[in-house]
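Hi support team,

I've been running sequence recovery on a batch of backbones for a student project. Most finish fine, but this one hangs at about 90% for roughly twenty minutes before it completes. I'm not sure whether the input is malformed or the queue is just slow. I've pasted the structure tokens below so you can try to reproduce it. Let me know if you need the job ID as well.

Thanks,
M.K.
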């Protein structure tokens, strides 16, 4: 039986069925979420979607910075490490989506950061300040 992702849009709860690959991604995003919550980070948004793309997790860290987290999972390193799959194109999309989020939420004077959570079967590798998208001004 397929899992269902619940989303709240304009106060209405929307359920949508996940594909098998989305189920795997959702499971590992949940693992990453639990990892950051154990560090006492506060979740702002999960699976933020806009015309520019999607951001997996957005948190307030303990220092008060807004942290955009890209979660990547690989079951093995046979074809490369998970963090290697956050290429320049993905970084550009994340930057655009983050810019829209910051404008929507009016977070103009906050410290912003882009982290990667590389998830593998036995661990979560957190890479703080993994990249800085170029060419964006808030």
């Amino acid at each position: 039986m397929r899992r269902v992702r619940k989303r709240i849009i304009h106060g209405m709860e929307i359920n949508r069925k996940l594909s098998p690959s989305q189920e795997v991604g959702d499971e590992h995003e949940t693992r990453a979420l639990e990892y950051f919550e154990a560090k006492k980070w506060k979740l702002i948004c999960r699976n933020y979607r806009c015309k520019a793309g999607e951001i997996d997790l957005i948190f307030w860290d303990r220092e008060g910075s807004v942290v955009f987290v890209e979660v990547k999972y690989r079951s093995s390193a046979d074809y490369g490490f998970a963090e290697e799959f956050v290429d320049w194109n993905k970084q550009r999309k994340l930057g655009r989506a983050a810019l829209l989020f910051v404008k929507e939420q009016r977070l103009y004077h906050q410290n912003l950061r882009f982290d990667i959570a590389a998830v593998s079967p036995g661990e979560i590798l957190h890479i703080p300040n993994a990249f800085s998208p170029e060419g964006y001004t808030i």
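--
Follow-up from support: It reproduced on our side and the slowdown came from queue contention, not your input. The two ends are 44 Å apart (CA to CA). No action needed from you.
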